[in-house]
Each structure stands twice: as structure tokens, then as C-alpha cells.
Specification:
- The chain has two domains: 10-65, GMP Synthetase, Chain A, domain 3 (2-Layer Sandwich); 80-135, K homology (KH) domain (GMP Synthetase, Chain A, domain 3), CATH 3.30.300.20.
- By secondary structure, the chain is an alpha/beta fold.
- Helix 1 (10-23) packs antiparallel against helix 2.
- It has helices at 10-23, 50-57, 70-77, 104-108, 113-126; strands spanning 29-33, 36-41, 60-65, 83-89, 94-100, 129-135.
- The N and C termini lie far apart (34 Å).
- Strand 4 and strand 5 form a beta hairpin.
- A three-stranded mixed β-sheet has the order 1-2-3, sandwiched between helices. A three-stranded mixed β-sheet has the order 4-5-6.
């Protein structure tokens, strides 16, 4: 696991400051992906003010609760998706996530944003590739 690093320019500083001002939580990491602002935060509490922040910034806001454990991190990333199982393969540097076929679109996210965010965060944080699988049940 590595600490995520980011360059903070004036715009990034403004966005992170707005996140903290609205949610009262300082994000650990932030990036933009496909028109979404993605924030990585510590703790176990999901901020309730995300919709308000999205309106202020005129962007879809994605918040992921951080964890040093890859399985917990995946569960946080896919918090509203029914995960059938998670298989971490350290030798291949891969995480295999299996979801029900009916949850496929939810797991991928609109325009593929959730899977793109998951792939980036898992690769940057743990060095793992994310592999999403679907099962008919």
C-alpha cells in the first residue's frame, strides 16, 4: 500500500476547501474522473451533505471511505452494490469482484465512472488491478 499523492493547484485547493467547509471533513485525496469529483476520506462516517456539495460545484460527487485493507476498501467503493464475493490474488496483483448480473450497471456506474474510479484507486493505492465479474442468480 502506498500513500496517494496529488498536486494541489488553486482549483484543487478550492474544491477540497469547499468539501471540508460543507462536510466538515478534510479529504485525504481528490481527483476528477469523467466529470465526477472523487474524494477519498478517512473514518467510518459518510458525509450527508454530498448532494449540497454537488450542487455548489455543479458536479457529481463520489466519496469513498479509505481503508488500509483492500477488501474493506472494495466494500467501501461498492457500498450500495451487493457483492457476491471478493478474491484478492496478491501473486497476480489482482482483485476479482463478483456481482450479480442484476447489479452490473450499478457496479459499473453511469458512463463507467465507478469502475474507472475503482481501477485508478486500487492501482494507485494497492498496486492491484480490478477485475469485475458477473453471475446470473
Amino acid at each position: 500500500m502506498v500513500d496517494l499523492m496529488m498536486e494541489i493547484g488553486e482549483n484543487e485547493f478550492y474544491i477540497m476547501n469547499e468539501f471540508e467547509r460543507v462536510t466538515h471533513i478534510m479529504p485525504k485525496f481528490f481527483f476528477e474522473a469523467d466529470g465526477n469529483y472523487v474524494f477519498l476520506i478517512e473514518g467510518s462516517r459518510f458525509p450527508q451533505q454530498v448532494a449540497e456539495l454537488g450542487k455548489r460545484l455543479n458536479k457529481n460527487i463520489v466519496v469513498v471511505l479509505d481503508s488500509s485493507d483492500p477488501e474493506t476498501f472494495i466494500r467501501n467503493l461498492f457500498k450500495n452494490v451487493n457483492l457476491l464475493n471478493i478474491n484478492i490474488d496478491p501473486a497476480q496483483k489482482q482483485v476479482h469482484v463478483n456481482v450479480a448480473e442484476r447489479d452490473r450497471s450499478l457496479a459499473i456506474g453511469r458512463g463507467g465512472y465507478r469502475i474507472k474510479v475503482g481501477k485508478k484507486l486500487l492501482k494507485d493505492k494497492f498496486g492491484y488491478d480490478l477485475m469485475l465479474h458477473y453471475t446470473m442468480i
